[in-house]
Amino acid sequence: MTTSKTTTALFQPFEVGNLKLDNRIVMAPMTRTFSPGGIPGPNVAGYYRRRAENAVGLIITEGTVINHPAASADHGVPHFYGEEALEGWARVVREVHEAGGKIAPQIWHTGTARDKNKFPDSNIDSVGPSGLNLKGEQVSEPLSVEEIQGLVQAYAQAAADAKRLGFDAVEIHGAHGYLIDQFFWDVTNKRTDAYGGSDLVDRTRFAVEVIEAVRAVVGPDFPIIFRFSQWKPVNYDAKLAANPEELERFLAPLSAAGVDIFHASTRRFWEPEFEGSDLNLAGWTRKITGKPAITVGSVGLDSVFTSLFEEGKGGEAAGIESLIERLERGEFDLVAVGRALLTDPAWAAKIRDNRTDELQPFTRESLATLS
Fold this sequence. Notes:
The chain has 371 residues and is of the alpha/beta class. The chain is 30% helix and 14% strand. It has an eight-stranded parallel beta barrel, surrounded by five helices. It has a two-stranded antiparallel ribbon with strand order 1-2.
């Protein structure tokens, strides 16, 4: 694979708040489950360091769960609380910074996407705004207002710890049918109090309170990234916002609450989000809010990432000419790379140095190790 178009746009500096990046390439958050008991070890630190050594501008970690008994769905997912786990993350930060990189943790709660029957040694009920899973089935009692307020503070504590440990920013996971997204989605939020309602804007209240609480503890210059998506794992065609006007109403309260960068998750970065325009979700988000946006979705692969988990399937390296053209037009500001970077730690450096014939294809086997 060769990329004939210049990659200069990808390797321009970027700055927001106290965050200064050497280039526009972001490592997308990808769940790896290599932290037994929730403790990230030296192997996790080495995994992230290798990307920092190879020209990734900003690393966003795999999802790390906040301090709540039902936050995690797998014992190998790292915690972002507790002395041992935080010491592990401090090691990760040191390694990445020594390699010249920048890093942000993604703080996360899985909500009712967590299946307690598949989570050994835990009989704790999963939690969500209405106790409904992504199929709309009742799996637990709705969260009380007191429980919601406790969750808001758990997000804030994780963000405060991120800043204390020396991270360069924090990302709040509000996408993909997990807890915050469950408040957004009318399938999973049937509440009739201040945290619900028939209007999408009303259903942003929990996210707004999380963002405001995070901003209060990290201060004005520590960047907050917010990841959101239209699609859900059970419905790739789901739409929180059916048109640009609805998207504007949805994003306005989140932006006002203190988001610095929006991470607009899509499955295919090249697909238009709404009819009548070729802008993708990140493009619309930037246009509407005026704030920096990260695009993501099968970057550098010849297959949509969700198809790459089928038996025997992988993904060959693909050209990024159209991506660079969109970046040059200012459609978005940053580009998150997932599976291509997972399998090839030097992906960014190879793109920079025009060594694209050396790019490694993504394979399912890549998921079995921290390469």
